[in-house]
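Thread title: Can someone regenerate the structure for this chain?

I was given the following input by a collaborator and told the matching structure tokens would be attached. They weren't. Posting the sequence so someone can regenerate them.
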Amino acid sequence: MSTAPPIEPAPAGVPANRGCWKGALLGCGGAAVLVVACLVGLGIYVQKRPGSITDMLMERIRDRYASDVTREDKADLESAYAQFRSALEAKRVRKEDLDRVRNTIKLGREVHHDEVVELTRVFRETAGQPPVRSLPPIEATPVAPTPSP
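Best answer:
Regenerated them for you:
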């Protein structure tokens, strides 16, 4: 014979953990509403201040220059970015152009010379500025001495 008390089943019709699901749904629902509100707020912020995102992207680019990027490349990029920023603040940059800039910027690795040149070109075009082309060096043509009388 067993000395353990008999196990009595729970009364029928009353679930034992009824309040657990209700609390979980209310807590998760509140968290979901909070997350959606944060995402909407972030979206509105980015639409009103797109320069904040491009500033952040430029900071990441400045931190990741490769060794083949020259001072002139960096100066050209900074100049082009300043023109782009001015156009952005004056609301002269279209959404398609802004998307083009974002697609040109590749993060997570070093930024090489060709990418800096391409990004400079995209910034200038997006800002409505003509691209700055480096002119070939002018070669001095020898002048034949003219005979003097």
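The longest helix spans residues 18-48.
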